[in-house]
Amino acid sequence: MACPLYKLLLFTALLILQLIATCKATLAANYDEQRDNAIRQVSSVGWEVTYDPPKLNMDMSTTRNVTLRIERIAKADLEDIRSVQLRSEREHVAWVENGTIVIEPLVAAIAYNGSFTVVANFLGQTSFFVELVRMNGTTETIKSSTLPITVIRPERVIDHVFTGSVILLISILYINFGAALDVGALKQIARRPIGPMIGFVCQFVFMPLLSYGLGHLLFPDNYELQLGLFFTGVSPAGGASNIWTVALGGNLTLSIAMTTISTIAAFGMMPLWIFTLGRTIFQRANLVVPYSRIAYTAVGLVVPISAGLLIQRYCPRFSRLLVRILKPMSVILILFIVIFAIVTNLYLFELFSWQIIIAGLGLPLLGYCFGFLASTLMRLPLADSLAISVETGIQNTGIAIFLLRFALEQPAADLTTVMPVSNAIMTPLPLLLLLVGLRIHERTKRRAENSLIPKTETDPVVATPE
Q1: What pLDDT, in 10s, does the model give residues 351-389?
Q2: Which one of 54, 124, 256, 399 counts the least CB within 10 Å of its CB?
Q3: Membrane spanning segments where (predicted)?
Q4: How far is Cα 149 from Cα 128, in angstroms, rounded to an integer?
């Protein structure tokens, strides 16, 4: 119980941070939504608006000056205009200091030139536009008057440390995995592959489709979050699945076999899903599918697993040592990536909203349910059903974060990372509740059985007279 209790405490602490950040993110999102709903009508005035520079790439917490020029201003246009403002579509990303545009009637026939200060607040993308407020209070926007702005994080030393650490730990884990790969066990499983086949379908058919559908349902207009959830859904099973299978009384042998098959199959299945169904998300997000980066990453993971197989073949004693540290190494990897990603990138919590929490919890929860239902319908033993359920629901979020950070440019890499982090935090919750429920049930059942056992009283010994 020590390990689940530790994870429960960790989850509780992270959940508190989530709730605090969710309030802030929800308020910002609601404000932006109100702004978007208010800005609907395009003005009929023939003004030409240009910006210098025509687009901005800024670091967080920095400022830049922008020159705004408006031409073809007719005096008649100003008669029904109360005010002219320079606005931001997403003010929590970037906003403008004193965006009021004062157009004098004397210079209206010539042009308006003004300089404004843009403040980059948080990573993401937004656009500035010129807004007209009529005398009756209605608002209009000038057609084709947008200034695209991209806000990214400045490069930090700790980011390079984190990236290098992830590469090192992933490589070590896959070397260990190659050393622990039991080819003989795989041959035995191939003779009766019902359990692994069900797990494969759940892992690489149901979970990708589920993550794709959840992304569309919860984030219809946020393609970065759709992409982050989809990358999480196409990832292989996580190393923690073996530990949870043991804790819940599942079939450990089947769990290890499924983890092995899932990890090997991921080299082909992840690129397959990303280059097919995932391409539609890239297209809607106006992002280029990073074919070469994803291919290089997949090939890069083959190298350490091949090294592990060579160690198993030629250095059996060292291979046995690697096998013993495989499980704790898997747990350390997951905890390190998630905790380090949170500590070094606390901005992630400002992105959290109720939709992100629901997605982070819904993906593993539905995976658990579908895996258990599918294996139960196939009349597998309860221990096998538990193993398949856990293997289906637990994703290797470390691989998802690894791919997203190396495959995408900024700020998309940062914006998409929030989904696997949310998934990693929320995944243990259903299993913890199930584990606590099972322990309570076992104790209650044991007490009930003990109460039914009749108490035997020893008869007093009567001394016989001599």
Answers
A1: 778 889 899 999 999 999 999 999 988 888 888 888 899
A2: 54
A3: 161-185, 197-219, 225-245, 252-274, 294-311, 331-348, 354-374, 420-438
A4: 8
